Amino acid sequence: MSLALLRWGVFILLCLFAPQAVAGDAKPRRSEAKGSRLVRLKNGQLLHADAADAYRRMKAEARSKNIYLWVHSGYRSPAKQRRLYERYRKGKGPQAARPGRSNHQRGLAVDLVIGGVKTPTYDWLVSNACRFGFKRTVRSEPWHWEYRPRSTREPKPGRDCVGRPLKRQRPQSPPVASTEKS
Ligand SMILES: [Zn+2]
């Protein structure tokens, strides 16, 4: 009798906890490096766990407005930053910070695919990224955003991140089918 009760107890516990186990995909996955705070985004890029959480929330909200965010470059190992810096120094690559000086090495910077500064994606970021703790930090690199929650603030009521009045919510057009995966 008591064994049967125990079995039922285990069964009920499994039912209670199984959904969370299944939903484990939503949890950030730790990177291979032991003790690291890096997690992997669905497209393979690594970010600091806190930046990744904020980025995922930002991406989800952007997506609800038909804006698709994509991280082209997140965390960089010291070796990768050194390579990029050397290419930049030789005039063979885009601007790159000295190794040890880039927030990419801390997993707190993202280079986003924005398609230029006159695109809806860039405009959405300018209007909304501060609410998720992201800000632009390099004047010549509109694609480079950093997770700096301590120096970003919620916009004033009725305003966006740069003080522009919020547009009235228009009725949404039917969602456009997309093949993007994350
Ligand atoms: Zn960058």
TrEMBL record:
The Swiss-Prot or TrEMBL record annotates one GO molecular function as:
carboxypeptidase activity
Query: Which Gene Ontology BP terms does the record give?
Result: proteolysis
Q: Which UniProt keywords apply?
A: Carboxypeptidase, Hydrolase, Protease, Signal
What residues form the membrane-spanning segments? none
Task: Tell me what organism the protein belongs to.
Answer: Myxococcus virescens
Q: Region annotation Disordered: residue ranges?
A: 146-182
| Signal peptide feature range | 1-23
Keyword hit for Signal: yes
Instruction: Please provide an example of a Pfam family that matches this protein in its UniProt record.
Output: VanY
UniProt-listed InterPro entries:
DD-CPase-like, VanY-like_core_dom, Zn_M74/Hedgehog-like
Entries under PANTHER family matching the protein: D-ALANYL-D-ALANINE CARBOXYPEPTIDASE, PEPTIDOGLYCAN L-ALANYL-D-GLUTAMATE ENDOPEPTIDASE CWLK
Where does the record place the D-alanyl-D-alanine carboxypeptidase-like core domain? 46-149
Q: Where is the composition biased (Basic and acidic residues)?
A: 146-162
- Protein name as it appears in the record: D-alanyl-D-alanine carboxypeptidase
Q: Which SUPFAM superfamilies match?
A: Hedgehog/DD-peptidase (SSF55166)
